[in-house]
Design a protein that fits this description.
CATH architecture of the largest domain: Orthogonal Bundle
Number of strands: 0
Largest sheet: none
Order of helices and strands: HHHHHHHHHH
Number of domains: 2
Structural class: mainly alpha
Helix content: 55-70%
Strand content: under 5%
């Protein structure tokens, strides 16, 4: 429900050519991610929500969501955000935008992130950088070299 109108229109605009998945390094190395499947799953969920609204006059919660029911967390985390899928798309669709929005949802709404990411988030929050050094201690290595 939180994807932008552009993301939803992209799902309908997809020509299903598969160039995005063919150029995806994660897909090529055998990971679960397929940018084409992301677009098809988004379209499938959109169609289902549309049928729900047509039947009920408004959206009635059906207990399903795009994330988890149609697209797995493993798929989202496999994406390296290299943009190869966007570059390969003949109609300029961006599966990466949908992937990033769902990753944001995982982290912001469900507090679900790999442990490595949580350490980095904590460091950014406390030290204003992904490293465990306080801002005042970051340049001490210069004096150690001399």
């Amino acid at each position: 429900m939180d994807l932008s109108w552009r993301n939803l229109l992209d799902a309908y605009s997809c020509t299903e050519c598969g160039r995005c998945s063919a150029s995806c390094p994660a897909n090529e190395t055998g990971k679960l991610l397929s940018p084409r499947k992301i677009m098809m799953s988004t379209r499938d969920r959109l169609e289902e929500v549309g049928r729900n609204i047509n039947a009920n006059g408004e959206f009635k919660d059906d207990g399903k969501s795009l994330l988890h029911n149609y697209i797995s967390v493993e798929e989202l985390r496999a994406c390296t955000t290299c943009n190869a899928c966007v570059e390969a798309c003949p109609v300029s669709i961006s599966p990466v935008e949908i992937i990033l929005e769902m990753r944001r949802s995982l982290i912001m709404e469900e507090s679900s992130a790999p442990q490595e990411w949580n350490s980095m988030f904590s460091n950014v929050e406390n030290n204003f950088a992904p490293w465990k050094f306080a801002p005042d201690d970051r340049d001490k290595w210069v004096s150690e070299i001399n």
